[in-house]
Amino acid sequence: MRRFRLFLSVSIGCFFLAFFTLTAWGAQEIRIGVLGPMKFDHGAQQAQTATYTAEEINASGGIEVGDKTYRIKVIKVDSNEFIRVVDAVSAMERLITLNKVDFLMGGHRSEAVLAMQEIMADYKKVWINTGSGDPKIPGRVKKDYDRYKYYFRIWMGSVDFGAVAMAQLNHVLNRMKDECGIEKPKVAVLAEKAAWTDATLKVADSIFLKMGIAETKAWRVSPMATDLAAELSAIKSWGAHIIWTLFTSGAGTACARQYGQLQIPAAFVGNNLEGMKDGFWEATSGMANYVGYLDFLGGMDLPITEKTSDFMAKYKEKHGKRPGAPAATLYEGMYILKDAIERAGTLDTDAVIAALEKTDRIGILGRNAFNDISHREPHHLTWGPGYYTGVGIQWIDGKRKVFWPDGGALLGDKRWVGFKYKGTMDFQLPPWVTEYWKAKK
Fold this sequence. Notes:
Layout: H1 2-27, E1 29-36, H2 41-59, E2 63-65, E3 68-78, H3 85-97, E4 103-106, H4 110-123, E5 127-129, H5 136-143, H6 145-148, E6 151-153, H7 158-180, E7 186-192, H8 195-210, E8 215-221, H9 229-238, E9 242-247, H10 251-262, E10 267-272, H11 280-283, E11 292-295, E12 298-299, E13 302-303, H12 306-319, H13 325-344, H14 349-357, E14 361-362, E15 367-368, E16 391-396, E17 399-404, H15 431-440
Parallel strand pairs: 1-3, 1-4, 4-5, 5-6, 7-8, 7-9, 9-10
Antiparallel strand pairs: 2-3, 11-16, 12-13, 14-15, 16-17
Helix pairs in contact: 2-13, 3-4, 7-8, 13-14
């Protein structure tokens, strides 16, 4: 009996010790829910980066909140948002109600983000969206601040994407004039079918006219298209001088590969997030030579900030490849949240929101700050010279070369005059393009 009583006492003591230890540990933990299309590279990159960044922050001392130190615990959920929007909604609700997360991170497809935004608002959870581009999403913050104030976006929205793509296009227009003598070029628009491209194309035509473009024609394809030979052949037959692309998914790789294989006599430039990937050159079998695209990070030898190269080197050492846009924005988001929580000195939601609104820090993408409520897209990462710009990159013989910002005004915006990154070069027209159009003279 004495042995039984001793065993019982020890067991009860161990139970309460474990209980209080777990309770104390739980109180010292910030739970961040990361959701994305995990079966696709966009989500996989975010999942990898979330784990890596949490480990990095925890190893450096965690998050200081007043006189307490918190560790980050990441809970990852597959949103399946590229396939079914309803799955994304369920994933977010599960993170909040079942996994009891304190903050939300991730999200990519605009259609899904719009739906998930309602769940965020219902449960009043701060969400840093590290993808999507539709201007309606941050626009909701402006229309109904009290309901949607929890939403912040770290990504280049459709309006900014469009402006950068137009700036790149304008640079290439000048190259076509200088080298081929083409004053009024024809531009083929090749874009994935998505909400963000709809928003970009709505304003494109009026800008095209101001740029002196003779004629444009659009081809829309599935984001998951694997064969664009028919569209590229039609573009060639139409007589396009430039192909202007809007891609964020796998179709961008197929398009670049077939462009090189078919040697379409048109310059290739625009948005193609596939071009950021380390294996893009190999995936196109080197056919992506002379392809231009928008990048967020630049190159190891042409970093955006002093922090960029360090992040890229660590990511490649850990994952064996160069980080893409989803990895970069997720990493940036985790540190922006850490910074805001520490400045707030509390986990109180409204205090963290107020701190996020006052964000001003140098990150891997540039200077981090959010647009205020007077902006058309509040709580969206500020874009422009001296902040977050992105860069125009061209693949040349397997290497990335920066060609934009080029120091010129951006569609009349003189803030960009003189702004360029060290090592920036002119866009190079493919030899078969210059030969083709000079022969036509």
